[in-house]
């Protein structure tokens, strides 16, 4: 099984930014643990702060992977382009968020992507990614 994980803006700062919201761990150590726990899954990881690069990655993998786990960060609430890219590919996408977006600012309560995703997992820290993975297994 091939799973692509895509992280959007500012998620390269995990482990250093707003630790009370996003936790102490960087993403790479978490991914290493996840990969060893699910060694039958082939993981690919991509992170970008640039909206168009995220869209390009969706187009690149959206016809050949078994699943995409995507945390689009702030673009979740603003990007029609990412939403349209998800609608245009065959690979199912699960939207994830580390924090509980519904316990935060009101503008974070709206996802432009959600209608085109298989589901949404929010608020379980980095465990949100593992829960998304389990939906594909």
UniProtKB/TrEMBL annotation:
Keyword Lyase: yes
Signal peptide: none
Pfam families cross-referenced by the UniProt entry: DHquinase_II
Record note on quaternary structure: Homododecamer.
Summary of the function given for this chain in its UniProt record: Catalyzes a trans-dehydration via an enolate intermediate.
Similarity remark: Belongs to the type-II 3-dehydroquinase family.
Name used for this protein in its record: 3-dehydroquinate dehydratase
Source organism per UniProt: Paradesertivirga mongoliensis
